[in-house]
């Protein structure tokens, strides 16, 4: 598709202003404020039940709001039915019509919009070419692989030239290799067609790879909004840190404070890091990624432990160890290790993020 033929009917900004959705006494989405610029790729990220699919369905018009409003530039749209919003949607389960060919599935949205037969044929041809399914146009969905069915669903969404594309965990049913391939294809289509995309996922790697901005949700509430780099490097709290790969969240006694550094310690363990928020109290939480450890003490940061489990992951070992006080540490090292080995680890102090102690108490 040429630049001249890029989807029309775009917008400057879509604003979700205090958007809420309740189901009886349960609040699935609580006062979500989010502005999406035209051309942005936004990922809604979080575990099951965090409100991300609810937010998407509110945008699509599949769920009415119980609070707030949705604005497209100066037009309020939350009262419009789905077919009047001009959005395209890609579902997790593809939602293809099994009795219609690929071509008819892709053209369905155009047909119900009254687009002429000649124009429909041209746009369907373009969409199928974009997702590389021209030679599958005559087949029924049941004759296609999972990846091909997902491509049909994407083609059906973009053929109507939507103002906004909504994707609800579109890759979760694919195997690992296909997920990587389709992830790249989705990003390429977003860029080449000048789309605006809202993408729901529970996979933090997927969100980081695809999005211009990531919205991390928990219990219907936004925990952090930022670029992939911001959310990955500077998580706002222990919840975001844990979700973004800081697998080691260690509640430890505070033993020293020196300017912008805090030191935590325990038998066989000493860590100095950088506070990410203001806090008081005698304990704090150190967040460290497994890949940030090195063998041997670093900057006086030291953890002595015994290897419990060591898994071979190609160029590195994924290891679980236990300190003398019984704390479990997850780390990755290039050297082969074996259960029972004693080892000392270090980590640069900038890689140790210190948070207030708001972890749930262990059961």
Automatic annotation (TrEMBL):
**Which residues, if any, are the signal sequence?**
none
Q: Which Pfam families match?
A: ABC_tran, TOBE_2
ABC transporter domain location, by residue?
14-244
Q: Keywords in UniProt for this one? A: ATP-binding, Nucleotide-binding, Transport
InterPro entries assigned: AAA+_ATPase, ABC_transporter-like_ATP-bd, ABC_transporter-like_CS, ABC_transpr_MalK/UgpC-like, Mo/tungstate-bd_C_term_dom, NA-bd_OB-fold, P-loop_NTPase, Transp-assoc_OB_typ2
Gene3D superfamilies listed in its UniProt record: 2.40.50.100, Nucleic acid-binding proteins (2.40.50.140), P-loop containing nucleotide triphosphate hydrolases (3.40.50.300)
UniProt GO MF annotations: ATP binding
Q: Does the keyword Transport apply?
A: yes
Name this protein carries in UniProt? ABC transporter ATP-binding protein
């Amino acid at each position: 598709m040429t630049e001249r033929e890029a989807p029309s009917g775009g917008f400057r900004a879509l604003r979700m202003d205090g958007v809420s959705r309740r189901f009886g006494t349960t609040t699935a989405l609580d006062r979500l404020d989010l502005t999406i610029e035209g051309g942005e790729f936004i990922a809604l990220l979080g575990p099951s039940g965090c409100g991300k699919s609810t937010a998407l369905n509110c945008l699509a018009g599949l769920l009415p709001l119980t609070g707030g409003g949705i604005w497209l530039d100066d037009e309020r749209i939350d009262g419009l039915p789905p077919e009047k919003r001009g959005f395209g949607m890609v579902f997790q389960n593809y939602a293809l019509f099994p009795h219609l060919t690929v071509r008819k599935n892709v053209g369905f949205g155009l047909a119900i919009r009254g687009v002429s037969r000649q124009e429909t044929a041209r746009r369907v041809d373009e969409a199928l070419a974009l997702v590389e399914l021209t030679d599958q146009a005559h087949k029924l969905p049941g004759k296609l692989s999972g990846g091909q069915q997902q491509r049909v669903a994407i083609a059906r969404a973009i053929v109507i030239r939507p103002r906004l594309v909504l994707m609800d965990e579109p890759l979760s049913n694919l195997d690992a290799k296909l997920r990587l391939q389709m992830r790249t294809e989705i990003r390429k289509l977003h860029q080449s067609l000048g789309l605006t995309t809202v993408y729901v996922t529970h996979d933090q790697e997927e969100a980081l790879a695809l999005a211009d901005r990531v919205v991390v949700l928990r219990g219907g509430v936004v925990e952090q909004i930022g670029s992939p780099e911001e959310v990955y490097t500077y998580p706002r709290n222990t919840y975001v840190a844990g979700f973004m790969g800081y697998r080691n969240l260690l509640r430890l006694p505070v033993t020293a404070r020196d300017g912008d550094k805090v030191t935590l310690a325990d038998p066989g363990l000493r860590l100095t890091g950088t506070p990410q928020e203001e806090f008081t109290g005698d304990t704090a939480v150190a967040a460290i990624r497994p890949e940030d450890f090195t063998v041997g003490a670093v900057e006086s940061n030291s953890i002595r432990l015994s290897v419990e489990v060591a898994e071979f992951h190609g160029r590195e070992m994924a290891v679980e160890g236990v300190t003398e006080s019984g704390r479990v540490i997850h780390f990755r090292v290039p050297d082969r290790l074996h259960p029972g080995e004693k080892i000392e680890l270090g980590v640069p102090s900038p890689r140790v993020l210190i948070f207030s102690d708001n972890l749930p108490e262990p059961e």
